Amino acid sequence: MTAYARLTARAARIATLGEASAMLGWDASAMMPTGGAEARGDQFAVIAGLSHGLATAPEVAADLAEAEASPPGDTWEATNLRLLRHSHTRATALPPDLVEAMARAASACETVWRVARAQGDFAMVAPKLTALMALVREQAQALAPALGLSPYDALMDGYQRGVLAADVAPVFADYEAFLADALPRAEAIQAARGPAIPLEGVFPEHLQEALCRSLSLGAGLEAEHSRLDRSTHPFCGGTPTDVRITTRYRTDDFAQALMGVMHETGHALYERGLPSGHARQPVGEAAGMAAHESQSLIIEMQASRSDAFLSWLGPRLHETFGGSASPYAPANLGRLLRRVDRGFIRVEADEMTYPAHVIVRFRLEQALIAGDLAVADLPGAWAEGMQSLLGITPPDDRLGVLQDIHWYDGLVGYFPSYSLGAMAAAQLMAAARRDVPGLDVALSEGDFAPLLGWLRRKVHGQGSLHGFNDLLVHATGKKLDPNDFQTHLTERYLKP
Amino acid sequence: MTAYARLTARAARIATLGEASAMLGWDASAMMPTGGAEARGDQFAVIAGLSHGLATAPEVAADLAEAEASPPGDTWEATNLRLLRHSHTRATALPPDLVEAMARAASACETVWRVARAQGDFAMVAPKLTALMALVREQAQALAPALGLSPYDALMDGYQRGVLAADVAPVFADYEAFLADALPRAEAIQAARGPAIPLEGVFPEHLQEALCRSLSLGAGLEAEHSRLDRSTHPFCGGTPTDVRITTRYRTDDFAQALMGVMHETGHALYERGLPSGHARQPVGEAAGMAAHESQSLIIEMQASRSDAFLSWLGPRLHETFGGSASPYAPANLGRLLRRVDRGFIRVEADEMTYPAHVIVRFRLEQALIAGDLAVADLPGAWAEGMQSLLGITPPDDRLGVLQDIHWYDGLVGYFPSYSLGAMAAAQLMAAARRDVPGLDVALSEGDFAPLLGWLRRKVHGQGSLHGFNDLLVHATGKKLDPNDFQTHLTERYLKP
Hints:
Radius of gyration of chain A: 23 Å
Number of domains of chain A: 2
Oligomer: homodimer
Helix content of chain A: 55-70%
CATH class of the largest domain in chain A: Mainly Alpha
Strand content of chain A: under 5%
Largest sheet of chain A: 3 strands, mixed
Largest interface: A-B, 33 and 33 residues
Number of strands of chain A: 3
């Protein structure tokens, strides 16, 4: 057995443990009774400990050195070896004590955050968040020299390899300028049109669920490799051959669940389309969180909210829910499902204002990691950011700094992925429309196959062969180009 | 850290991995789409491999020797140490090659069995079963000297420690004699009564499910520590703080699901009542498969089919399903739910004929392991056994030797547990009735609390502190006494 073969065998075992953990994570959110939580925490911890032990065993360093001395000739294998080295560097850069302290502090902070958020009391969670952020900074400082990155970049690297804050900052600054002009114009156009005919009524959960499942399967997810269940926070979990998506239903509004399911279906299709010949190897995984978000958003925002698809969807919705046909007319549906709105809550934001929410967080978390901002000053800085980008100030911290779990769970460097993904989705859609004649005609018949086929070739099947920007070069001929997203928004929101 | 503390810490990690595996097993049966099966198999294998590695690591032997040199003074801890030694002996007695060969052969045999059973073609699976049985014999022969048991006893020991074939054989012989007399008498009494009023109609699945859940919770299972789901083969899985029971529903018959759920609820209550202070240690586990079956059967057969409980249940059923009240009259319900019937299928058997099915299997599997019976001769020997014990001969192998998965999965020595459990359930119920005044009055009000309280003290809370017979001594003042079961059957079926 060669050193490389030993490494891949070990990586496969680690990935298989990760699958077990992923399934248990899905269960914890979608199925588990509350009384199972404590034992489940132990199950995660034992699996994580064994996994970390496998990843950092002394023989791995020796095998990596031996394999690197005569690297595989095949591009996929050579890339895989580089990624194995990368994950070994990350795994060994952190002292086990710090990993454990982080896990404990994150769990403690998240617990207090749940109460603090409910009560809108930031001061309640500030001490725990301060302690957690001190550990996150320690983590960033331990990773930075090992990876040859700045501390904040070392954190971002954990979610989307190869993207630096210095690349993101000008993209976001440019978007800020675009938004300052575009948002008032979009609002004016929207106001001039007057209100859309609302979707009112009671939409039974079982009808919504059946519809969501059928649309998800219609988009290309296979019944024998997926489930659709319910959870408080919608997500896509599971493993590539057994993807589990979840949503939540409100009987007074079906659009949230429906578009939520299309979003998660995008994530799920990416997992399903990963190169199975490289399953359980780093090179066979999704290319990162920004890449993943590009796939959820190309299905949800780009395809499912397109004029073409809505013209097909409207009659299906009317058929399902009955009542008057007029709200389901494609133009009206478009006005309902594509509406800009300056709101306080990121996860409820429309696609034009969403990046503003991300930009605020991106800037604040950089300052936190650099030590330029104290946790105690976060609410004020948050309010300033929202005022500056969206011209609104949250009336309380529940609608402000307390809304997202990320920081309270120790996740710093994740937020940029959301908007990089949105921009990449627009760029990919533009390229797909150029490459695939009839893509919109197909969508107007409810047919995702041409788009999915293109995504499988250009994105899904590429696994982690490329980094984020190189993947975009492979698929679209150029690195991330934020203009495609602005063009998309201009087309959709700024045509009177 | 003492050697004993190191051992218990390791045992807890192994048990926690076992919990993860148990949850994944539940998922595989109740939730997983078919496309996830292959990856799931790998997940089980990796977890089993890590678990086996932890159990057989060289330092365990050293720690056991060190701990045994000055054993803990506390009875629970001393017993735990003995059980840790016992499981180490079992884990290290088998060469890893044999374990792997067994796993592969069992999986191969089970796969062919599914087709063979559907087609009623024993010859199709005979070669795989022959190969598997050769490995089971090897396994038995490797375990026997390590445990100081005969090969068949060494297999039985894997399911119910401390019970020997030599103890079981006379109990079963005695039952055979009882049955020869009792069964025709019970049938004559039944015939003399004429047919019961049947439960006819359509019983919607959601009504059955809600009723089953409510009865299960009514028997004492806590909603925050349990779930009720659906699977092809009903079972009780999960972990002590998160028990998962399953059933299946037929719209033309609710009794199967209902009694099936009460059966699994009995298993679940046992898991819930195990001593939490000894969780994840051998001494904190259930006392074996016969003990476990005694708990499912005391809830299902003893309590839920008692006159007292049926008098409460009848009106609830009528309320749920509507229609005529007469089938739900307690006496009629009793005749429907307590009916002896010479059938071919073990899992559908009534409580009087059930042991006959077990006795046939017990005798055949002993002969298989002793090498006195060839796999090719199984169908004939099966038919002879059924003819001799129940006076019926299966018309085909689907209704005969192909019906149960156990042997085709390499499980030999398990079957006796079913009937030992049934006998223990009768003995425990008799003792509970003596110890707890008003137990049947409570059941006639749908109240399981007095019975459950007694079981928690006498059985559940004892974990594995006692072996099967000592547990019965603790709870009832005597070892397994098959007369209590015969008395129970006489009361229930032989009073004209």
